[in-house]
Amino acid sequence: MSETQQPKNSGAAIAALVTSLLGIPLVPIILGIVGLVGIKKSNGAKKGGGFAIAGIVIGALAILIVVGASLLVPVINSGREKAVATKNVNNVRSCNLALMSYAADNEGAFPASLQDLVPDYIEDASILQYFSRNPEVNGQPFEYVVGLDDNSPSQTPIIIAPVAERYGQRVVGFVDGAVRLVPEADFQAMRNK
Q: Is residue 42 part of a domain?
């Protein structure tokens, strides 16, 4: 190399930086390594090691962000599913408490429908509806088993979610006031007794 000639920037190093800034994962790392190797082998004819290193670092960060986000999505979805299940369990629990109060005021008899609990025992009628992230079932009423009273067997289902969702479980309220997430197979066996 003559003394008047300036070293040229490595095309691979510049490409590494540009692709990393575009958010393209893995490519900048490969280009950065190729650029660094080319710079080292050029014996001073090429420069741009900083571009190559910046491309490698930013490319690695992009990969970490993509991997981190892909790991977080199932966790976030699981949290949402738990929140939905908790809301439905709480709604059924509120319905059960209202049924117990109604029965205490009506010689042990439960009402003919859950709507009979509004507004004297339940202020917000939305509690009578199933909450779901699935729009096909969101807002459907809980199933209510009529003809029972507070002397019915304690483990008789009285309020039932319209579908099984989370892990194949269905929210079920029982005559004794208990509320559980029941596996669908167990619920169907209980219903067929």
A: no
